[in-house]
Amino acid sequence: MNQINLNVGGMTCGSCVKHVTKALEAFDDVTDIHVDLQNGKVNLQRSSSKFDDLIHALTEEGYPSSVDIDGSVKTQQKKSGGCCCG
Q1: Average pLDDT, whole number, for the chain?
Q2: Which pTM value belongs to this model?
Q3: Which of 34, 63, 77, 79 is found 20 to 30 A from 86 (Cα to Cα)?
């Protein structure tokens, strides 16, 4: 399994966490999803090291994402995300 770390923008509440988790659970080979709302981070396990499809899925849901290569803490973005709480 490969550890994949993502920066995810637009998350503002628990509903956002659920939306992000659900979008990632749609991939059969993704497990152990951990969403850090405060820091805008998602960590997960995947059988492949591919991540571009995960980023695309999250972006399509309204959560602009990128791979987190250096592991630096990113402050939570305040702009509205994929839910109505923005």
Answers
A1: 88
A2: 0.83
A3: 34
